[in-house]
Design brief:
Length: about 180
């Protein structure tokens, strides 16, 4: 008997794992817990905020995929959090969707590599994605640039995203127990 057959007998197959909502959710919670720990120690870690953001973004991705699987769907194999949120039917606000776009870029490249695969992706990130999170103000001859508190992926904004999606998880789990 080969190893694949043993996995089939033990019901530990690719298809079973792919459709196991609890497995997706457990991974999401693990990365959420990791993100919170990393936030506490961000100043002790080189690029600590970025390391936090990567784990935060991954936890949101996994939670959205858990929701999709819990509803009987198949999680898409990309990192586009806005699309995953739509598939998971989580009602994020317009500013929260902008935050999801930023976190998607963190997952795709900025949380893992110093540059994306192409110069066009680099320009898109700085000219469009990051720019949507900046507020530029002018007072006479002085310009000031600051993060948009409603869209920039701070730990507070991350927790709001997590809590909205996690609330949806609780609703689905409750509905499954009453069906």
């Amino acid at each position: 008997m080969d190893k694949k057959e043993l996995r089939r007998i033990a019901q530990h197959t690719f298809a079973n794992q792919q459709s196991n909502e609890d497995s997706w959710y457990d991974f999401a919670v693990s990365f959420h817990e990791g993100a919170n720990i990393l936030w506490q120690y961000k100043d002790s870690i080189r690029r600590g905020r970025l390391v936090f953001l990567l784990n935060a973004a991954l936890s949101i991705e996994l939670l959205l995929k858990a929701l999709i699987v819990a509803k009987g769907g198949v999680a898409r194999q990309d990192h586009k959090l806005r699309d995953l949120a739509h598939d998971a039917e989580v009602a994020f606000s317009k500013s929260q969707k902008v935050t999801l776009d930023f976190l998607s870029e963190v997952l795709i490249w900025s949380g893992r590599y110093p540059v994306p695969k192409t110069e066009e992706a680099w320009d898109h990130y700085y000219d469009h994605v990051l720019e949507r999170h900046m507020i530029r103000e002018r007072e006479e001859n002085v310009w000031r640039v600051r993060k948009n508190p409603e869209t920039f992926p701070s730990v507070e904004n991350y927790e709001v995203l997590w809590n909205l999606a996690n609330r949806k998880w609780g609703e689905i789990q409750l509905q499954q127990t009453t069906d």
